[in-house]
Amino acid sequence: VNNRLDHKPKSPDDIVKEAELLVGKEMPYNLITNNCEHLITNLRYGKPESRQVRTNCDSHNGSEQPEQCV
Predict the structure, then answer these.
(1) Which H or E element spans position 43?
(2) What's the rounded Cα separation, in Å, for the pair 8 and 16?
(3) Which of 16, 21, 48, 63 shows its CA 20 to 30 Å from the CA of 8?
(4) For the packed helices 36-45 and 12-22, what is the interaxial angle rounded to 10 degrees?
(5) What is the pLDDT of residues 12-66, one digit of tens each?
């Protein structure tokens, strides 16, 4: 299994059990703070994280950074 983050992944059984609990539930969506990558990393590692968002926010170097990145 490719572990692209520095977090220990949960077991596949635990991931599936947690995912099954979410079936049918309405999930709030936010591109910066709660997107599909956040959902998957939360299921897999127990920590919602988006490398795409972090990379984009970091690329602003503090200037004209989107409000959500601050």
Answers:
(1) helix 36-45
(2) 16
(3) 21
(4) 130
(5) 999 999 999 999 999 999 988 899 999 999 999 999 999 888 776 776 655 555 5
- The DSSP bridge partners found for residue 34 are 30
pTM: 0.71
pLDDT for 55 equals: 73
- Token pair belonging to 55: 């990379």
Q: Token digits for 57?
A: 């926010």
User: Which residue, 4, 6, 39, is CA-closest to 25?
Assistant: 39
The contacts of residue 10 (CB under 8 Å, 6+ apart) are 18, 43, 44, 45, 46
